[in-house]
Amino acid sequence: MADDLEKEQSGAAEEVSVEQQLARTDEPAAAEQARADADEADAPPTEEQAEGESRPLDETEQELLTRLERELGDAIVESADAFGMLVVRVKPDAWRRAAEASKHELECDYLSFISGVDWQPAPREGDEAGGDTSAPVQPTEMTFGVAGSTGRLQVFAHLESTKRHWGVTLKTDVDASAPHAESWVTTYPGADWHERECWEMYGIAFDGHPSLRHLYLPSEFEGHPLRKDYPLLARVVKPWPGLVDVEPMPGEDTPTAENGGSSADADKGDGADAAQSADADQGESS
Amino acid sequence: MSVDFAVDRQAWRHLADAQVNVELDTGDMILNLGPQHPATHGTLRLVVRLDGERVISADPVIGYMHRGYEKLTEFRTYPQITTLINRIDWLSSFANEVPFLHGAEMLMDIEAPPRAQYIRTILTELSRIATFMLFLGEMGLQVGALTPPFYGFRDREHVLNLIEAATGGRFHPNFNRIGGLKDDLPWGWINECRNGMKVVLDACNTLEELVAENEIFEARTRSIGIIPPEVGAGYGVSGSNLRASGVDWDLRRDGKPYLVYPELDFKVWTHPDGDSYARYWVRLQETREAARMVIQMLDRIPSGPIMAKVPRIIKVPEGEVFVETENPLGQMAYYVISKGATGPFRVKIRSASFSNVSILPWLLRGVYVPDVITILGSLYFILGDIDR
To answer: What CATH fold (topology level) applies to the domain B58-387?
Structure first.
């Protein structure tokens, strides 16, 4: 048994060293290519750097972007850096091509996630000044994140390379009137569940997905819960911070001037006595 | 009358024979595994289509525990969210808090002081040990051995006691704050922790002898549920599951530097086989490695403050950040989009088990029914981490 373990360990070690050698042999050629490409088309990167509101791209990001540009050309709309991560926005019709380019050109073999985002601000229920503390106050005008957007809905995904240890975030715009995007299932089999989740949460259909069924929610569920205009029902049913429901003890349920009105409001089907006394209370007070 | 009866009897016998033949000849049978199966750590339902003893197709049904955390985060402030994300992977709650708060800190341009970073790393590794210790015992149970889980639970208790002593909570510490930690370590905890790590290393030896070197265990797990590295990566399988397929990728070493991992000396274990046994073996080695890392950190832990200077009302500037960490179950990542408010605009929670389990329809095709349980056990998922 101990022999076995040793064998396994050495086996693992061998594999590592082979991979490292591969990486080593790969690197100079790739770097050369990248340099050549950068020489050929050095205009777009410098433009990006000039435009970038945040930070300029570092070396790895620049190489990733160059490789993607070689493959996708002008399908890349915008690119930016977000805390050391490259964010690339591509045209909707190049979404699947972007996945293939990332898998083959960037060696991103690992699918981290696919998800959606709704940039529209959530409508605030109730009066603004009334001290509604149910949620942190967000800006009311629609702004878009890193690498921009044309509409409220977007699909974004993160891919990583287990060999090169780099990653890229891809974004694409989704038409809000008929939300759909290309499916990645043929490139990354793991996209199946992520796209099902995105479909039920945002209502974004994925063209070419084998079976868009509900994943988390029951099949008769209506609406798309993660869209900003879908209210958090728990907060609608009960104002926040939750008023404590205290049922009166037996014998204490005679309505008084303090609680009579509210209990009658809360439950219209109450006994006639309660309603009458509540009315009487209101009459007295007014 | 009696004659008729005899004739009928003959006829029935004939029919019964025919029925038997028909039944032996039938095609698929649908077996509903769960949602309450012990191997599922919660409520995962698996609709398995069988041909005899072989699985033709398996369709996991999830969502029995869906709590909608991604929606709820949009209605909470940053400090409130740690309470929620504690409950994603409930066996290693502390490790869930770290990446989210690290993301918020990156957006706010705050860095936790070194002592806080060390304590965070120690507690992350302790939760890794607690999670794996349970797995190492429980994996025996999945293949029919009743003794190992008791060892697993017993020895995990030492680690949980340590976490409780430091944070006040066994499962949901809620100990992290933006910019540092709630409290410093209590007196004498470092020595206690050293002793605890000895117990853990002993327990690993015990479990190795008891489970990993057991002939029956090997027979049940070797070459069962093989995940080829490229398939695993395509499905987004991460962590020990992917390392057991020979992929030498650990975010503690290969990802963007976080916590104090760059300062530590540790080995990333891989196994070339990719089967259930490899997954067990890799987790066993990683438990030992984690204990060694904790001992290293206990020797080096610096003194100093545990909180950075943080404004009284936490407003996170506008921006987007993607933070990923190597959690016990795999890659845990948060994509935080902030619009300058006290709460995030959108948080995408990338949990490890969701992707780890999404490979099941591929992985279970063609295996025998008892091996389904072995594979479920060896993938090691937490339902809260799938359903979020």
So the answer is: Cytochrome-c3 Hydrogenase; chain B (1.10.645)
